[in-house]
């Protein structure tokens, strides 16, 4: 039987995805014009495209959305996880329609354009996703030109010349430039607006920004902490100058082993203080490296808002938000670390806890944005530890 909804062949392609293998996939460009090179991955979330495009962990990546209708509720000014869009571009099946939401401030097309990010529509995203699943996430170039003019051999060269994410430290590029208090408050049901707590005598967490998402800080504040954010390259002395009661290691882009070269010595010193520490995603991987474990590049990675994870101490299953292309090798965990969470998709490591220090971390994103909120208990766990250790309320 013929496909009831065949993809419209572009009359004149205005966009193209060129893979390092030389394959070209034609479509219709939207958003900004130009060309960008990076790793082509896929994301299975059906909502939250603004949060995904602004997640700094996506620096260096081009996102294929498996959900066919992306952009149809437009873009607003609130659903962002950083001040900039970080993903290089996005690949979608259907054309972006006019925004249909009372919250929309503009269309997704113009939102991307204003941020210099390229969109490519009219792509058979199922076929592309299958290709990524079978062959791993390829390097490629996404290009948009309204005139339909593309120098394909040059784009193939561009894709081939890109060295790939392995060995690449991107945290330094997306981190904040200077120490600053997190003063973005949160609205809490019944309690109204709670300021970010910058001046409050709350348990004080120093967060190392390797490419952090704002919703992590919102959740730390909601759990009762005051947060100061420091650049990825902050030294141990700079960290301690803020008199932290606890340490937080953020998510972020690139290869943890490359970022670990400068982050690991500082994290080891943090652990020696005996104060509570919590890490998310890249922060989980860096904690693992700091205790002597290894990280590896995954075949296709995990990117979605519905990844089941088993919590080993209770047997409970959490549905989680994920976005990672590297993973901690379970067998490399030292004796003073226990695995706390595993992926029910592929059994990969999703969490660890030290047995001789108050430090733990998870591979997934408990702050969601987008995604389910099953894992918010981790913020409570961390902040209550910091509260108990510091004696502050
Ligand atoms: N979300 C993250 O922090 C991603 C961590 C790391 N860059 C990875 O891809 O595995």
**Distance between the ends:** 66 Å
Please count the helical segments. 10
Calculate Rg over CA atoms: 21 Å
Number of strands: 19
Q: Fraction of residues in helices? A: 10-25%
Task: Identify the strand order in the major beta sheet.
Answer: 8-12-11-13-14-19-18-17-15-16
Multimeric status of the protein: single chain
Q: Give the H and E element order.
A: EEEHEEHEHEHHEEEEHEHEHEHEEEEEH
CATH architecture of the largest domain: 3-Layer(aba) Sandwich
Query: What would the average pLDDT be, to the nearest integer?
Result: 94
CATH class division of the largest domain: Alpha Beta
Fourth CATH level, the homologous superfamily of the largest domain: Class I glutamine amidotransferase (GATase) domain
Q: Describe the global form.
A: globular
Bound molecules: glutamine
Q: How big a fraction of the residues is strand? A: 25-35%
Count structural domains: 2
**SS-based structural class?**
alpha/beta
- Sheet with the most strands? 10 strands, mixed
């Amino acid at each position: 039987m013929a496909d009831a909804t065949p993809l419209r062949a572009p009359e004149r392609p205005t966009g193209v995805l060129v893979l390092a293998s030389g394959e070209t996939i034609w479509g219709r460009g939207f958003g900004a014009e130009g060309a960008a090179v990076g790793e082509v991955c896929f994301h299975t979330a059906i909502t939250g495209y603004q949060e995904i495009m602004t997640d700094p962990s996506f620096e260096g990546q081009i996102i294929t959305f498996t959900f066919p209708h992306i952009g149809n509720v437009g873009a607003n000014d609130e659903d962002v996880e950083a001040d900039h869009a970080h993903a290089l571009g996005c690949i979608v099946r259907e054309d972006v329609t006019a925004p249909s939401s009372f919250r929309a401030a503009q269309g997704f097309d113009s939102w991307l354009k204003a941020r210099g990010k390229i969109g490519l529509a009219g792509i058979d995203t199922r076929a592309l996703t299958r290709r990524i699943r079978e062959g791993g996430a390829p390097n490629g170039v996404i290009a948009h030109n309204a005139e339909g003019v593309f120098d394909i051999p040059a784009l193939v060269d561009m894709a081939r010349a890109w060295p790939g994410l392995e060995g690449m430290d991107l945290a330094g590029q997306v981190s904040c430039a200077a120490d600053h208090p997190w003063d973005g408050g949160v609205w809490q049901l019944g309690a109204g607006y709670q300021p970010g707590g910058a001046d409050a005598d709350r348990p004080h967490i120093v967060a190392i920004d390797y490419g952090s998402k704002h919703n992590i800080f919102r959740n730390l504040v909601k759990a009762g902490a005051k947060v100061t954010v420091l650049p990825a390259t902050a030294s141990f002395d700079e960290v301690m100058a803020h008199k932290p009661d606890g340490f937080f290691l953020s998510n972020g882009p690139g290869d943890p082993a490359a970022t670990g070269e400068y982050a690991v010595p500082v994290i080891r010193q943090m652990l020696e203080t005996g104060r509570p520490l919590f890490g998310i995603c890249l922060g989980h991987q860096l904690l693992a490296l700091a205790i002597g474990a290894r990280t590896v590049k995954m075949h296709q990675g995990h990117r979605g808002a519905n990844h089941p994870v088993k919590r080993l101490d209770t047997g409970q299953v959490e549905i989680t938000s994920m976005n990672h292309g590297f993973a901690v090798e379970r067998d490399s965990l030292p004796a003073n670390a226990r695995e706390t969470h595993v992926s029910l998709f592929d059994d990969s490591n999703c969490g660890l806890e030290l047995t001789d220090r108050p430090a733990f971390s998870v591979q997934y994103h408990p702050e969601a944005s987008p995604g389910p909120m099953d894992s918010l208990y981790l913020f409570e766990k961390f902040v209550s530890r910091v509260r108990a250790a510091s004696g502050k309320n």
